[in-house]
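COURSE: Structural Biology Practicum
ASSIGNMENT: Worksheet 4, Part C
STUDENT ID: 0417
INSTRUCTIONS: Below are two proteins. For each, the amino acid sequence is given first, followed by its structure token string. Answer the questions at the end about the second protein only.

PROTEIN I
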Amino acid sequence: MKDILTKKGLELMQDPRVAKLMQDERVMKTMMQAIQLRGRLQEDFDQRVDQVARSLNLATKKELRELKRSMRKMEQDLERAKREAAAAKKSLEEQQQNA
């Protein structure tokens, strides 16, 4: 759907009538207002979804992203600790063999 709309939008932009319309300051101002309105509506919607999720004791997208980030960090820390432990074990074994 998005691809179709993008394609149609590009076709429209090539139309000389649309190009002329886009040069009109009023049209551009109205388009900017529409884009800003969409952003505000999306922000408002996201806040309301977060409120509902919290009231139902559900995780939000933001919380899930943070959880995934924390898990990735812990996995990296665990891998690093395993490598360090393996290196320490190898070093200890070498010291014991040399003794």
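PROTEIN II
(use this one for the questions)
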Amino acid sequence: MSEEGHILTRPLGAPAETPAPEAHAGVPDEDSVISAIATVYDPEIPVNIYELGLIYAIDLHDDGRVDIEMTLTAPNCPSAQELPEQVREAVAALPGVSNASVSIVWDPPWDMSRMSDDARLALNMF
């Protein structure tokens, strides 16, 4: 995804100690989007899809659009139709989101190394 349209918290090239300009009012931040995505669980695995490492990119636009790239645990995943729609609905429900889109990508392929430590702990993989 391109960087065009991303909300910048400071002007490009400005030192970090420069006061950050106000983001557009009402546009959700990445943490809010991640929290919404984390409400979606793979029905076969008791871990949310963010902790599973299925989210590859979150692109926030200053007009309220949110574009998400995600993958699935396998190409023949039985939840292939419902998970992306659940993610889209969860993000679209956030205040300030004008449009949410979810694209499925297969490159790079998902593997267990993408899971967070919390997900590994929940699945007794340590």
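ANSWER KEY EXCERPT:
Q1: The beta strands are 55-60, 65-70, 99-104.
Q2: The chain has one domain: 28-121.
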